[in-house]
Amino acid sequence: MNLSPAEQIYPGERTGRFRIGGNQPVVDANGQSRISYEDCAVAIIDEAELPRHINGDSRSAIYEDKTP
């Protein structure tokens, strides 16, 4: 499993609002790529327990979802 977290990981709260993207960094409307430690941990455990984004040697990017 190759996971790449967002460019900025910060201490915060677990929101449960995150996305797992492809091999490229993903940015929001403000050009930021970020996720809280808490949501990053949940995303990694979710993927380990139920692999949905693993595709050979490719990487998956994890980032927060700020869509309303």
Please name the defining characteristics of this protein:
68 residues, alpha/beta, three-stranded mixed sheet
Descriptive account of the structure:
With 68 residues, the protein is α/β, with parallel strands linked by helices. The chain has one domain (3-64). Helices cover 19% and strands 25% of the residues. The protein has one helix and five strands, in the order ββββαβ. A three-stranded mixed β-sheet has the order 1-5-3, covered by helices on one side. It has a two-stranded parallel sheet with strand order 2-4. The model has no long low-confidence stretch (mean pLDDT 76).
What is the beta-strand fraction?
A: 25-35%
**Compute the gyration radius: what is it?**
11 Å
Number of helices: 1
Helix proportion range: 10-25%
Low-confidence stretches: none
The CA-CA distance between the termini, in Å, is 30 Å
Compute the number of strand runs: 5
Summarize the structure in short.
This protein is an alpha/beta fold. It contains one helix and five strands; from the N terminus they run E-E-E-E-H-E.
Write the layout of secondary structure elements.
Elements: E1 3-5, E2 8-10, E3 18-20, E4 34-36, H1 37-49, E5 60-64
Parallel strand pairs: 1-5, 2-4
Antiparallel strand pairs: 3-5
